[in-house]
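Q: I have 671 residues here and want to know how they pack in 3D. Can you give me a structure?
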Amino acid sequence: MIKIMCTQNHTAIGRAADTLTEDTGLHFPGDKMLQGYLHFEAMCDHKYSFTCDICGRFPCCLVTDANRKCAFPLALSQVPGAETASDEINMDVFWNQTVEASLLYRGFGKEAANDGRVSPSYDNWAPFVGLARKDAKAFNTEAEKLRSLTKHLQDGDFDAGDRDLTEDVLMQMLCEKKVPEVRHWCTKMEVDAKGTKLEMINRLKEKLKSKSTFNKLFSGIWGHSGGWVSASCPHRIVYAFKSILRPESVRDHVDLLLSLSRQPPVVISDVAPMMSRHGNRRRKNMFYPNEGRLAEATAENIQKAKDGNFSKSIPYMKEWLTVAPLNALDSDAHFLPSSETFCLLDRFHEGNTKSEQELLRRISLVPEMKGRINSQVEEQMHRKMNRNNYFLDVMSPGNYMFVLRLLLHFYNQQTNKKMTAAVEGQLKNDILCGEIRHDTFGRLHLSGQLECIQEQANSAESTSTKLDVFQDICNDNRQLDDIVVSIGPYRVSKLDILTIAPRLPKETEDQMRDKIEKEMRWTVGWVNDQIINAFLYVLCQGRECKERNVALSTQVIEGWRNFKSGRSHRVALLRKEKLSDAEKVFIPIHRQGSHWTLLVLDVQTKQMRFYDPMNRTFDEEVVNITREYMEYRLQNVPDDAIDPTHFNVEVGHGYTTQKDTISCGVYVCIL
């Protein structure tokens, strides 16, 4: 357990062994403890799903970036397999039969351990993709970097993405070195070694234009692997990663995307322009149209982007970036929202491009993403993972690969756990329905909801017939706020009536949502309070009702809540209800603004019955707040009140319960 905690909290096993030795006086060999721990983890049945609980196996957006600081020692000149390497590597063979097997071989002696040692090679070095993978084979075109570099040294024809990134990395490495080391390389490259560090680096940069100098400097300085490239969704879950042998190139980013089962419609990167060009060379229309830009790079669109007047809507991004897609059918059709694929710049690299047409790659031009998406999830994750570099950077290639995947797996687990808890809390407060589970695509949903939606889809013809009843109301000239009918003290508007409709025209639904969602969350079919008030009023006043029944307005208990919390300074006592003459009092209550329940006070039997369309046990908060209101009314209007002191509480039974998440209002009316 101590070893596991060390790995998950950025602590080397050796440090833990030293601490145990000091505390106990016993000798704990750190190296053997590490090997034993890795052997144990290799035997564990880790799922390594690398999947977000909200996005599922097919994310709509991925952010890619490279971490160059986490790399193991490696002499690139000794890496074999460039001639025999293919573009695709079998991940299962590499990770299971090479990496994990090498750890297990160590339990069978030194000879077996040496035979199973992991040696980096271009023909057997694979990325890792979780459940979002296309199949067991993943793309790894590391050998093409070497071929491209060799071709560059021969005839100058070098892949632009490889050249730019390689030179940038070399300049960054020189900047990180101390002055004596920079002066040493200047002397070795026959460059003037006088002046400041920056002046010497600028002279070396000019010298890099020479093919021979570039190769000599690159081979001399580069003495380790290239780090690793990863792709994460906006919810901070890593979907895929690739440990790279040579310096980063855009081909590493594209390799990960091509290894996925489905390419995300939106990809965000700090090298987006180069990635889109390279990707379209690798696969036709990989980023299409406009090479992954938000619009055609016309002078008009560029000027609008400069002036801040350009906007490109991507509607499906709003749902996937905020909450789990709870209303999606259990079908892969939901994962095909658009034929467009975008390659955009992350927020903090938007100003790095010199080309004006790349202004159309800014995520701030997308209303659904502006201020809502964290495009720095990769850099933030890398910064956290870099706390492990002090022990990862000195590991052998086999240990490095295994521990890196294990650390990312633990990171994903912790992130998903926190995210799931947050979603559960949100759903309990907003919907109060069902049990949260994963569907077949790895997304969170409420149990029973998908089945309900499927039933609705199967009964489309019946629903279409019901919609005709409301068609005339939708098409008339009245505004949504216009009163259609008055029932007792309640005035029912056009908007109130349309909340009963099982389906609405898109334009009408949008208009209603704009009005209703200013105060509460709403969806089509969710009956509002005026309809419930009017229905219960008619039910209690009808001739067929032999009892003297009274229904309180839905606003009574809500008003009392506001009064108790200080949001309101007065309480509606509603003398017109005539509670003193009632045999039964019906009290509809909107629990936390998202779920209708009913409380019935039987005055003759002194019973307080609680009804929940979801057949739950009674809500103590609802009962207590109703008692408080009745006591307050008894003190202020004693001639028209009910004393709730001796009422017993019980849960109603023998009624039909709802099967979906939106029909609670209807069931409250028919309970």
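Q: Anything worth noting?
A: The two ends are 54 Å apart (CA to CA). The chain has a mean pLDDT of 78.
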